[in-house]
Write a structure and sequence with these properties.
Elements lengths: L33 H25 L5 H16 L8 H13 L3 H4 L8 H14 L6 H13 L19 H15 L5 H17 L5 H14 L3 H13 L17 H13 L7 H13 L29 H16 L12
Helix pairs in contact: 1-2, 1-13, 2-3, 2-5, 2-13, 3-5, 5-6, 5-7, 6-7, 7-8, 7-9, 8-9, 9-10, 9-11, 11-12, 11-13
């Protein structure tokens, strides 16, 4: 549920689930060559790796758009046989850790983070992607989350900056993931209670945009205990696929790489095979919409809250949404490359 209009909001997947096709069925796509997909992944990866490497030259604080999501693309690419910069991933994790390691006291009080739980959840995800070990800083991040859970069971960010910092579902799923991975023994009783409240909220809160729908599916798959809830969440995601194979951020918008890449990555992470026609149609959409330089363009719909700067990424003033869109698209396409999945770490 997004922050703009929703500020007043007070187990596993059943293996017998049949994948329904809800969007209009086009003519079957021609066979997509693995080499074509791998080439698209390599081109997208080059964009997001450069973006992530450049970002610390301009800012000294963590960001979800230039750390977590490029790191996701790096990890997904490597797992599916596409070479990535093995030194950049731990460097980005170190940059992320450094952004919080001097704020432990404030974190433990639930204070001192711009972007609130959304930022903390994305930061913990970045550390997880690099297989960073638990320490005093990660424990403090979890403590922050335990202090900032809303009474209704969800977490939020600080401002409405769609789509990346809008969804309560995203903030909640990332918070649950952080607590599961980095919670200390002394925190576990409170984490169990927080997770129970969050699962109830995930299953019942209305989802508005596509990110809400996709993140609800991911959260219920990872942390829920009712197969029927997962099945219902999956149906809502599949129904939203457009005839051209993509997904849109909102019903009134056109399909784009941000919504499509994110949705596809979550679908395969929750059990949909990349060989399925639904996924293949999404792959086709992403391949056709990739720009010659390897990026994907998404127009920004957020109002800037900080002094503008150019990180050197494609698409000018729209680079801070086009870069995460490129990361999601790259990660989703990588999952479509056939073959064994490699270990996450080099």
């Amino acid at each position: 549920m997004g922050m703009c209009a929703r500020a007043g909001l007070a187990g596993g997947l059943c293996i017998f689930l049949i994948w329904p096709m809800f969007a209009e069925e086009p003519q079957k796509n021609a066979e997509l060559a693995p080499e074509e997909i791998a080439k698209a992944v390599s081109r997208g990866l080059a964009i997001v790796q450069k973006a992530a490497a450049n970002y610390p030259k301009h800012r000294d604080c963590f960001s979800c758009h230039h750390q977590s999501l490029p790191m996701l693309a790096m990890v997904s690419a490597r797992q599916h046989g596409v070479k990535s910069d093995t030194e950049l991933l731990p460097a980005q994790a170190q940059f992320t850790h450094k952004s919080f390691e001097n704020s432990i006291a404030a974190l433990k009080k639930g204070k001192g983070v711009g972007g609130r739980a959304m930022t903390v959840g994305y930061a913990a995800w970045a550390l997880l992607l690099a297989d960073s070990k638990a320490d005093d800083t990660t424990e403090a991040l979890v403590e922050y989350l335990l202090h900032t859970q809303r009474e209704e069971g969800h977490w939020t960010g600080q401002m409405c900056r769609p789509p990346l910092e809008e969804s309560y579902f995203t903030a909640t799923v990332l918070a649950l993931q952080a607590m599961k991975r980095y919670g200390s023994d002394s925190q576990k009783p409170r984490i169990s209670n927080a997770m129970l409240r969050a699962k109830t909220w995930l299953a019942s809160a209305p989802a508005k945009g596509q990110e809400d729908k996709a993140m609800r599916l991911w959260g219920l798959h990872e942390f829920g205990d009712k197969n029927e809830d997962v099945a219902a969440a999956r149906i809502a995601v599949l129904k939203a696929q457009r005839p051209e194979g993509g997904w849109a951020q909102l019903d009134e918008m056109d399909s784009d790489a941000y919504a499509t890449g994110q949705t596809m990555f979550i679908l395969q992470a929750t059990g949909l095979g990349a060989h399925e026609q639904t996924y293949r149609r999404g792959v086709d959409f992403l391949l056709k919409s990739q720009k010659p330089d390897g990026s994907w363009f998404v127009r920004s719909r957020s109002k800037p809250i900080q002094a503008d700067f150019d990180n050197g990424d494609p698409h000018g003033k729209d680079q801070f949404i086009s870069t995460p869109a490129t990361a999601w698209a790259t990660a989703a396409l990588a999952a479509a490359i056939p073959g064994p999945v490699m270990p996450r770490s080099p």
